[in-house]
Each structure stands twice: as structure tokens, then as C-alpha cells.
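CO-FOLDING WORKSHEET

Operator: S.A.
Ligand of interest: magnesium ion
Run index: 413
Mode: holo prediction, single chain
Checklist:
[x] sequence pasted
[x] SMILES validated
[ ] output reviewed
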Amino acid sequence: MNTTLAELAKTELFRDVPDVILRQVFDHTALRELALGEILLSPERANQHVYVLLSGALSLRFDAPHSPEVRELAAGVSVGEMSAIDDTPPSAYVIAKTPSRVLPIHRDMLQQLVEESHPIARNLLRLMSQWIKANTRHIANDQTQIQRLTATIRRVTAQGLDQRIPTGPQDRDFAELIAVFNEMLERLERSFKQASRFSGDAAHELKTPLAILQGQIEQAINQAEAGSPIQIVLSGILDEVRRLSGISKKLLLLAQADAGRLRLHRMPFDLTASLQDLVEDARMLAPQLRVSDDIALGITLQVDGDLLRQALLNLVSNAIKYNIDGGWIRLAATQHEQRVEVRISNASHGIAAADSGMLFERFYRADPARSRNIEGTGLGLSLAREIARAHGGDLELEKSAADEVSFCLALPL
Ligand SMILES: Nc1ncnc2c1ncn2[C@@H]1O[C@H](COP(=O)(O)OP(=O)(O)O)[C@@H](O)[C@H]1O
Ligand SMILES: [Mg+2]
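OUTPUT RECEIVED:
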């Protein structure tokens, strides 16, 4: 007996009534329980309602035809009168609260009516559906406008801060809201650009002096007496300078990514070979760890090899750095129809739930990393993710057992 909204919407009768209205109509069950007689007998309610009473034959009554639409739509049907063609009690009724937005309809009875498909009843229902439409058009308009606005805002936030929401003549009610939103975007864009230009400029300005410094220190080390205290001090300084230069290179790349200007020099890239090399490197760098691999053969991609290698290197070096005593590393790569997935997993003390959402934030380092004095800046994962995304892929922390950590790098083919 119960029918779904979708089924009813398929019937020709309510074809033109927007979904949002139909849903309201059918979800509103407050009047479902009321007996027909009660409604008819209540003078208070009788003033508020339009009744269309339908039996297998026909009885119709508009008790409160306040709205001109009803009058008009009901033209040709006697208004304000009850006309019973036969004596059978009404088997279905449609109730519309004239001034209101909500129009409850007794769904079972309506369905029965639809099933019976009495031609006169169908016509009446069509009349009713037009009336519903006419009286609720403003709700539908509001709803579609809000939906449109939401879709636009979603698109704008996805595409970037330089987007603006256009306003059309039909947006009268929302013009102010849209203007405020656009102003907000404007301010955000300006300060965001400033910030990313600043770190980009700073990193760029640091590049040359750092390179010169590095060259001179290297030269001084070569000239100093082998193993002398000054050579040892200089080596320490050189390490720090290299570190600084690494950070500024990463910052520059991140600033470029923020500005949407991470330029990719795509070339054929032998991912399989590159991963196999990384496995060898890991075995050499961390002989205390068990390193296993499962790398599909012959995966080649059209990517920026330098950047991708940098992303992979960070993932593997993380897997080594944040491992546990006697732990393991696993590198796997699988090729699917449209994409390649590289999984880099390692044994770990686990990542606290609070940290896991933050790992890709710039300069963020989970607590144990800091407390155990492990070398790092907290930029590696965010840069690796930017690199993946610039290629149309992504990098994610995967759900895994508490004693392991696994990252999945996905790249389109
Ligand atoms: N494979 C991993 N296992 C456990 N923790 C990890 C792993 N990779 C990253 N992390 C955590 O995420 C933090 C951020 O990593 P990353 O951005 O590469 O920066 P960095 O390595 O310079 O600290 C690390 O400090 C560490 O706490
Ligand atoms: Mg790292």
C-alpha cells in the first residue's frame, strides 16, 4: 500500500511538481492520522483548508478558496459546493492549507486513487498538482537558487581563491550575500597571495647566497688540514648550510604550488626502476630493518621525474627515520587501469589520532619525532602531497594497524 515518493513522482500527475515540494508534501505526516470527518467538522480548520474530496466517482469541495489561483484553477468546477455524484464515502482526499507552504497529502489514499486511475479523479489531481505548484513556486525558486549558490560556492572554493560568484538578474534576494562572499574571497586572496609571495621571494633570495656560502665552505674544508679542528667545525657548518638550502628549496616549491605555478617538466619516467633503486638505497642505509618489496614490472609514467623522485625519497626516508628497533619497510607498486598506486609502509609506534590529521601541514612534526631529535623540518609530506596533486594524483595516510604506518601515493596513468 505504501508507495515511495519516487514511484509517485513517476506518475504523470505530479510530473511538473518540483522534487523539493513533493518531498515536503509526502513527508509531512501531521494530518495523516486525522479522520476525514473531523477535518470537515472543524470550523476552525475549514477556514484554513481547501478540501478536494474524491471518491471512486467524485466529490469536491473548496471550503476556503481564498487564493485567486484556486479560483482560477477551479474554474469549471463548482467552488464552495459539495457535489456528490454517488453516495459512496470519499476514498481519498487531498488537503491543501491555502496560505501555507506545507501541503499534506494522504499518501495511501492518493496512491489508491492513482491506481484506480479514474479519469475524473486524475483530472482533479492534475488540478491539485497545478495548484500546489502555483502556490509553492516561491519555495521551489528559493530552493533552486540556494542550490545553485551552493554549487557555485563549492566550485569557487575548489578552483581557487581567484574565483568569484557571478550574480544574475534572478539573484535579487541573494545579491547582498553574494557580494559579501565575494568581498571575503577578495580579502582572503590578497592576504594569501601576500603570504605565499613572501615565502617564495624569501626562498628565492636565499638561494644564491646559500649556494655561494656552500661553495666557499667546501673550498675551505678542502684547504684545511685533514682532520684538523677547523675542518671539523667547517664540516658541521656545511651540514647546516645544506640543511638551510634544502629548506629554502622546499619552501620555494611550496610557494609555487600555492600560487598554482608548480611547473612540471613531464618526461617518460621508469617508476619500477626508480622504486627498485629506492629499495636498494633503503637496504644500504638501514641494514637493521627488513626491507621487502612488491613492485609491478614495467610501470612508466609521464611525470616530472625530479619532483616525483623527491616525493618518493621523502616517503622512504620517513619510513626509515620513524621506524622502530628491528622494524621493517615495505614498498609496493600496483598498476590499475587508470592509475598507479605506490604504497610505502613501515613498522612504527603508531601515529596518534590527533597527529594523523596534521601530518600534511607545513612544519608539522608528530611528537615522538621531535622528542627523539630526529632530523627533519616537517615539510616533506606537504611537499610530496603537492607534487602528487600537481600531477593529478594524491598522497594519503592509509588506515592501518596500530603498529604500522602506510602512505599511498596515487598517480594517474
Ligand atoms: N613513515 C612514517 N612513520 C611514522 N611517522 C611518520 C612517517 N612519515 C611521517 N611521519 C610523521 O610525520 C611528520 C611529518 O613528516 P614530514 O613532513 O616528512 O617531515 P619530517 O620528516 O621533516 O619531520 C614526521 O615528523 C613524523 O612525525
Ligand atoms: Mg620527511
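REVIEW:
Residues 175-258 form a domain with the Helix Hairpins fold (CATH 1.10.287.130).
The chain has three domains: 3-139, 175-258, 267-412.
[x] output reviewed
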